């Protein structure tokens, strides 16, 4: 258990813009001390593409460590983000998918080793954590990294890499609602010298839910190969595949009757039929070539392809049920394909000038995103009755599956291409002062066809980045930064035309403290965000597709505080708090972020004995609002704050065999996770899992 003590000595994670290709030697792997925290320091990540430590970056960055995810039995990216400072990861009405928010706005940009995934944001939250070493979260605009600079932040998922050595683990897990999960991770060297290395991960999961008849299954496959062609040239390939299936997919409970009376029904009720299903696959393939020109300069080339396929038979309430229990179901069949391709070439290096060493990154990239979405409407109306279907404890919904109009699909296509050239420079002005300057020039072309309504646009933008870090002394650092916001989301107006890009500014100032041993840190950040043409949900069209309107003058400001570290050699604790205020001068025209709590807090801790680690977490989400109706005018419903706690225990029998026990929602808190449109999604009640792991 001592391998878990103190701050990590060696960490191999990718840069947000150019993931690292460092390979662990066998002895380095065995000697690695691991940190079981949502860490922030002593890691090479970057908001600008530069290989800067977090302490030298004038922006808020958090890292959710592999060991933290293992200890707390976190299997999906959406669950992991519930523990990141300043991030609100809500439980969506689709149970497994989540919408994620930071600083008052949705985080709709997910990267894998710095490359944009084809998945929509809520699809990316379903990705299995077994594939990834860390989850990096940069809050605030990141327009230096990709062609967009959304104000909330960016999530970068760092894939596991092959190392020089042979080893791995297998686990078996059983939990509440018949959760069964098996996971294996195996690494090997393919040559005697270790110049060629391979790693493979497999995870299989099947589970029911507290919701009647709902079932979800998952298959995850991942493999990576790295080869040292010469001492200076390394080539790596990464491939992943994930398949998720869901049956009797619940859209939540009906919120109320049409006359406004509440509906008394147990949280386990599922009024939706077994034929309401969703099957999705997400796969990615990346090749990376890294050439070390000399000790100061290197070239990195990447090719990345990601695709997401979704086949869905959607069922949801058409409106609030009548007082006698009669209701109608809106249903359709969707077949959607999303594909993202990116080619990137970057040069990284350092040079000496005026007695100081400075760092430079120059990167050019070509990116293309395509969406092809077919929607089929039913040929007949689907109806049911709550009273007739829920007299028994295990109701079987009556609505039969209708026939769908496959001859006349509602077609939606989109194609967004971009070329960009980025330059980022870190000037070490003095030993204790560094200044960051950056510019990212982007040329964007976008095409969409929504039921015959064609939008064809071209945009140009240059995102600028200014920042500075001043080290007052060895323990205290202050920083400030300015970043442009430029975002081209796939949001359409009522006529089906693509909205113009969102533009704005992101400003942040912060304070960092670390003790002399670098085992305890304090981070405080204040931010101010302004946006023009911000996309706000304005209603649903006749095909039940959400449409948006662009609003200006949207502003977000607030602060975030993080304290984390070892208070004794055995006791670690981490605490974060954030307070965000979002204002919109046109609030009556649509919702902005009223569904996001202004105040959030999280706490995690553990204590190590000789062979036992015991810990837990407490997460707080403040008051917020749900919304009812389909717009453009919504009614808002207050949603109470809630506190969720978890417990974790890990025991090592010997070097090879260990066991783990976890409880989520420890005190069985009843709460509304979300209220949206005409449904309410109850939060998961108390649940547990037990796991046995064999390491070799």
From TrEMBL:
Cellular localisation: Cell outer membrane
Keyword 4Fe-4S included in the entry's annotation: no
Keyword DNA repair tagged: no
Ranges spanned by the short sequence motif TonB C-terminal box, renumbered to the chain: 679-696
Gene Ontology, cellular component aspect: cell outer membrane
One GO molecular-function entry: siderophore uptake transmembrane transporter activity
Residue ranges occupied by any TonB-dependent receptor plug domain in the UniProt entry: 56-154
Residues of the TonB-dependent receptor-like beta-barrel domain: 237-666
InterPro entries: Beta-barrel_TonB (IPR000531), Beta-barrel_TonB_sf (IPR036942), Plug_dom (IPR012910), Plug_dom_sf (IPR037066), TonB-dep_rcpt-like (IPR039426), TonB_rcpt_CS (IPR010917), TonB_sidphr_rcpt (IPR010105)
A biological-process GO annotation: siderophore transport
Membrane topology category: Multi-pass membrane protein
Pfam families named in the record: Plug, TonB_dep_Rec_b-barrel
Keywords noted in UniProt: Cell outer membrane, Ion transport, Iron, Iron transport, Membrane, Receptor, Signal, TonB box, Transmembrane, Transmembrane beta strand, Transport
Signal peptide boundaries: 1-25
Entry similarity comment: Belongs to the TonB-dependent receptor family.
Official protein name in the record: TonB-denpendent receptor
